[in-house]
C-alpha cells in the first residue's frame, strides 16, 4: 500500500446498476399490458384510419391482359387498356373507385355471350391488383383460363395507391366541404349560448342565497343521463311539422340549424355548468371585500373580480362544449334535416355510400378542430392550478332579496327548459298516435315489433354498461396507478400519459370508424373481436378513457408519495398496499369512475354506431334507428328507458357510496 | 454525556460503510463522492440547508433513489444495488405516511402481518410497541384522530416493528410545533439509546442535530463539509460554511499576518494556528459568546481579567437586545469598517461593566476561539 499515492486518479467508485425488485418487475408488466391496451385500442386503429384516408383505389387497365380463343387458337395478348381505347366502355372518371370497386371483365367484350364456346385467358402483368372469379380472389401473375360461362363471373379489382386524391375529391365537392362551415357555425353558436346560460346558472347557484339550490343542481345534471339525440325528438314534437307549438317559430323550420343549436345547448349544458361552477367556487372572498371597501359598484366588481377569476373555467367550458357539439352525431342526424354537418357526413359516407375512404377523410377533417379545442383546453387547465392559496377565504353569499329572486326566476326558466324537453319525450312515448289519437297507452313500449332490435337492445345496453363499468374501471385505475406510482421510466410514462389524454380529442364516430379499419382487417389476429360485445366494450372504455383516467390520477395524487416506500421498507409487496390501502382510500373515485362509464355506455351513440351487430344492438342506437324509420314515439320511449335506467344506476351508486363509504371511509370522520 | 460518546468510540463496530457515493439527476449532481462510516448503535444526523443533498443521501442508503456510482454496505453485506424491499431498514418520513384508513394498530402491524406470525403474537408485539411510546390506549384510533406528535410516534414504532438493523428518519420532527418538537426529540433520543438501533436522521434544524446526534454530518452542495460530534462541530468547525451554518458567527474581513495572527484594519489579533499565506485576504470568525467584556483590575463575575492587553480593544455599544438569559450586544469599531460585531454577554457581566447603548467598552477576542478561514463563496 506504500504506492497508494502514485495510484492513478482514474480509480473511481464503481458504477451501480440498480437491481429491480419483484414489485418493480410486476409494475413494468402492468405498464406493458395497459400500454399495449391503449396502443391496440387507440393508436393502431387511428393509424389504420389515417392511412385509409390517404389510400386511393383505381382500376389499372394496363395491368390486365386477355387472350381469346374462338376455336382457332389463342389470339395475341391484349391489355384491357387497349381494348378500352377501342371500345370506350369505361370512362376515365369511372376508373377511380373505392376499395370495394368491381369491374366486370365482360364489358371489354361486347360480343360476349355466356352460351358461346369461346374461351378466355386472363392474367395480371404485375401483382398489384387482383380479380375475382365469383368470390375466389386471384392475385398472381399466371395466365388463367376460363370457359365463357365462367368468364361472365369475373370482375376486376382496383389497385391501391397512396396520395392526397381523396382530400382533393373532398374539397372539390361543395356538398361535402360546406359541412365544415356548417359544423363550425353550429358549434360556435351553441358554445356561446351554452356558456352564457351555464355561467348565469352557476352564478346563481354560487353567489346567491336563493332557495332550492339542490333541486336545481339535480335538474341541471339530467341531460347527462340521456342520449344527445333525445332533445332532438322532443323538439320534433314541439316544433316539428305536426308540433304542438310550431307557431312559435314563425314559419322557420326546426329541422336544421335552429333545432341542432337548441338541442346542443340542452345536452352540453351540464358539462359547461360543472366546469364553471368549479371555477366560481374557488373565488376568494377577500377580493370582494376589497372591492366593497374601494366602493366599486356591483357591475364593476363583476367585471374586474368575478370574470377574471373564472376566466380559465369559462375558456375551458367553451372548448369542451365546442368539442362536444362539433363531434356529436346523434342530434344533427335526428333534427338536422338537410343541414349537413361533419359528423353526419362520416355516417352518410360509411353507412349510406359504403365509401370508407371518404369517411376516413371527413374523420381527419373533423379531427382538426377537435384536436385544436382539446389542446387549448389542456393548456388552460394547466394554467388554472393554484388559483386558490391556503389563505384564501371561500366566498359566502349574503342574502339579497331582489338579487336572489332574479336568480331564482332565471334558474326556474332554465329548469323548465331542461325538464320540459325530457317531459315532452315521456309524454310523446305514452301517447298512442300523435296527433290523432291522444289517449295514453303503452303501445310504444312494444319495441319488439319495431326496428332497432327490440327489448334485446335494451338488455344489451345494460350489459354493455356493466361490462364497461367493470372492465373500464379496472383498466383505468391500474393504468393511472402505474403512471402515478412507478419510479423512473419517464419516457414510457409520458407516452402513456399522452395516450391516456388522447381519447378526449377523438370524436366517437372517428374512433368507431378507425375500429372498423383496424379490427375488420382479416389479417388482424384480433379480428375475432369484430361484431361482438367485446369490441363495443373496448371502444366505449377507450372513448371515455380520459375523464376516468384524470379522476383516478387526481385521487391517487392525494395519496402520500411515500406509501410505497414505507411498504417496501416493511417488506410488503405492493399489491398488499394496493388492496388494503390504495383501493379502499380511493373507493369514492373508483365508484365515480364506474358510474361515469356506465351512464356513458348507456347513452353513447357515436362510438358504437359502426360497431354493433344484429346480435349486439343497443338501446341508444335503437332510438336512432326507430326515429329514422319514422317510429318517433317508440324512439322517445326507448330514450326515456335509458333515462330511467341511468337514474336508477345513479341512485344505486348513491346508496352504495353511502353504505360502502361508511364502512371503508370511517377514518375520514374525526 | 459520557454515555453518548461511548457509543461512537473506536471500540464500536462499524455497521454501515458508504464509499464515494455519487447521485446525479440529469445534469445536476446531488451527491458528489460522499463517504461515511456509521458505527453500530450510533445516532447520526445529516445536517445542511435545503438542497444540500442530505435527503438524497438518506434515500440512497434506503435504496429509494439508488446512486449512480459508489457502494453501500450494511452489516458486512454489499447492498449497493438492492431495491428497498431487500434491505434492512425502517423509515419515518416528514409526512409520516401513515395509512389513513387503517387503525394505529393495523398501521403498526402492517409489516408484521404476512411474516407468518400468528395473530396473537402480532397483537402482543403491537401492544408492546404502543406501550413503548406511551400510547397504550390509542391503538383503535385512526391516524387522523391523533395529534401530530402522536402520529409521529405511531410512524416511529411502525418503522421499528420489524426490528430493523437501521432506522432512517427523514425530517421526522419538522411538521410539529416547537414545544412538541423539543419534547419528542428527547423521547426519541432516549428510545434510540434504549433500543440501540443504528439511526440516521436528516434535519435542517441545527438544534435538533446538536441535541440528538452522536455525530453530525454537515453537508453542503452535495458534499460533506465536516463529520464530528456536536461539540466538535460547534467548537471546531473545519470550514467557514460549518462555522456559519451551525450557531451564530461573527465574520470580519482581514489579512493573514503570521501563522497564528491576523490583521483587521490596523490591529493585529492573535488567532488559532492557520496555514494561510501572509497578507492573503481572510475571514476572521468568532462566536458571539467568545467576545468577552474586559476591565483591568476587576475579577470574577464573568468579567475577563488578564494582565496583558493582547486581543483587547475598544468598541462602541450600538444596540442591546435582552434575550432572557443573556444580552446580545452590537459593537462597532472603526477597524472593522461597517461590520457590526455581535457579542453575547451574561447578565452579570453587563451589570458589572454597566454596558449601555452609546458607551465605549473594552472587549477581548479569546485567542483560542478566533478562527481564520480563506474567503469562501460557499456560505449560507
SSE layout and pairing:
The complex is a heterodimer of chains A (670) and B (380).
Chain A: H1 22-53, E1 55-58, E2 64-69, E3 78-79, H2 80-87, H3 92-95, E4 96-97, E5 103-104, E6 119-124, E7 130-133, E8 136-138, E9 144-147, H4 148-151, E10 154-157, E11 159-162, H5 165-171, H6 174-207, H7 213-221, H8 230-239, H9 257-281, H10 285-293, H11 298-327, H12 330-335, H13 342-352, H14 356-383, H15 401-430, E12 431-433, E13 437-440, H16 454-485, H17 490-501, H18 508-519, H19 533-543, H20 545-557, H21 563-569, H22 574-603, H23 619-628, H24 632-664
Chain B: H1 2-7, E1 14-25, E2 28-39, E3 43-47, H2 54-62, E4 69-74, E5 77-78, E6 90-92, H3 104-109, H4 119-132, H5 148-160, E7 166-170, H6 178-195, E8 198-203, H7 206-212, E9 215-220, E10 223-228, H8 230-235, H9 240-245, E11 250-256, E12 261-264, E13 267-270, E14 281-286, E15 291-293, E16 312-322, E17 326-332, E18 341-346, H10 347-353, E19 360-365, E20 371-373
Parallel strand pairs in B: 3-8, 3-9, 6-7, 7-8
Antiparallel strand pairs in B: 1-2, 1-4, 4-5, 9-10, 11-12, 11-14, 12-13, 14-20, 15-19, 16-17, 16-19, 17-18
Structural account:
The complex is a heterodimer of chains A (670) and B (380). The relative contact order of chain A is 0.11. In chain A, the strands form four sheets. A four-stranded antiparallel beta sheet of chain A has the order 3-2-6-9. Chain A has a four-stranded antiparallel beta sheet with strand order 5-10-7-8, with no helix packed on it. A three-stranded antiparallel beta sheet of chain A has the order 4-1-11. In chain A, helix 14 crosses helix 18 (508-519) and helix 15 (401-430) packs across helix 24. Helices cover 61% and strands 7% of the residues of chain A. In chain A, a hairpin with a 2-residue loop joins strand 7 and strand 8. Chain A has helices at 22-53, 80-87, 92-95, 148-151, 165-171, 174-207, 213-221, 230-239, 257-281, 285-293, 298-327, 330-335, 342-352, 356-383, 401-430, 454-485, 490-501, 508-519, 533-543, 545-557, 563-569, 574-603, 619-628, 632-664, and strands spanning 55-58, 64-69, 78-79, 96-97, 103-104, 119-124, 130-133, 136-138, 144-147, 154-157, 159-162, 431-433, 437-440. Chain A is built from 24 helices and 13 strands. Chain A folds into three domains: 58-161, no CATH class; 176-383 and 415-437, MetI-like (MetI-like fold, Orthogonal Bundle); 464-510 and 527-617, Orthogonal Bundle (MetI-like fold). The longest helix of chain A has 34 residues, at 174-207. By secondary structure, chain A is of the alpha+beta class. Chain B has 380 residues and is an alpha+beta fold. Chain B folds into two domains: 2-89 and 164-244, Rossmann fold (3-Layer(aba) Sandwich), CATH 3.40.50; 248-373, RNA polymerase II/Efflux pump adaptor protein, barrel-sandwich hybrid domain (OB fold (Dihydrolipoamide Acetyltransferase, E2P)). Chain B has helices at residues 2-7, 54-62, 104-109, 119-132, 148-160, 178-195, 206-212, 230-235, 240-245, 347-353; strands spanning 14-25, 28-39, 43-47, 69-74, 77-78, 90-92, 166-170, 198-203, 215-220, 223-228, 250-256, 261-264, 267-270, 281-286, 291-293, 312-322, 326-332, 341-346, 360-365, 371-373. In chain B, strand 7, helix 6 and strand 8 (198-203) form a beta-alpha-beta unit. Chain A binds chain B through residues 12-24, 560, 562-563, 565-573, 576, 580-581, 584-585, 664-668, 670, and chain B through 19-22, 33, 62-64, 66-71, 80-87, 89-91, 93, 95, 97, 99-102, 110-111, 114-115, 142-145, 158-159, 161-162, 164.
